[in-house]
Amino acid sequence: MAAELDEQVEAFRTRTLDAGPFTFVAMDALILKVRIVCST
Predict the structure, then answer these.
(1) Which residues contact 15 (CB under 8 A, 6 or more apart)?
(2) What distances in angstroms separate CA 11 from CA 4, 8, 16, 28, 29, one per listed residue?
(3) Which of 5, 12, 33, 38 has an alpha carbon within 20 to 30 A of 20's alpha carbon?
(4) What values do phi and psi take at 4, rounded to 5?
(5) Within 13 Å, how many C-alpha atoms sit on residue 23's CB side?
(6) How far does Cα 16 stand from its chain's mean position?
(7) What is d(CA 6, CA 12) in angstroms, rounded to the nearest whole number?
(8) Domain range holding 6?
(9) Largest CA distance in the chain
(10) Residue 30 pLDDT class (50, 70, 90 cuts)
C-alpha cells in the first residue's frame, strides 16, 4: 500500500504545471476573544 502511495506522490510532485488552470481554495480567519466586564 505504501509503495502505491509513493508512486502517486511522486507523480504529483513531478507533474508539469503547464497542463492548465488549477482550482485552489484560499482561506483566512480572524478570531477575536473579547471579555466585557460590567460592574453595576
Answers:
(1) none
(2) 11, 5, 10, 29, 32
(3) 5
(4) -65, -40
(5) 0
(6) 20
(7) 10
(8) 1-40
(9) 67
(10) very high
Three-state secondary structure string covering the chain: CHHHHHHHHHHHHCCCCCCCCCCCCCCCCCCCCCCCCCCC
Per-residue model confidence (pLDDT) at position 6: 94
Grid coordinates belonging to 16: 508539469
| Model confidence, pTM | 0.41
Q: How many structural domains is the chain composed of?
A: 1
Name the residue with cell 482561506.
27
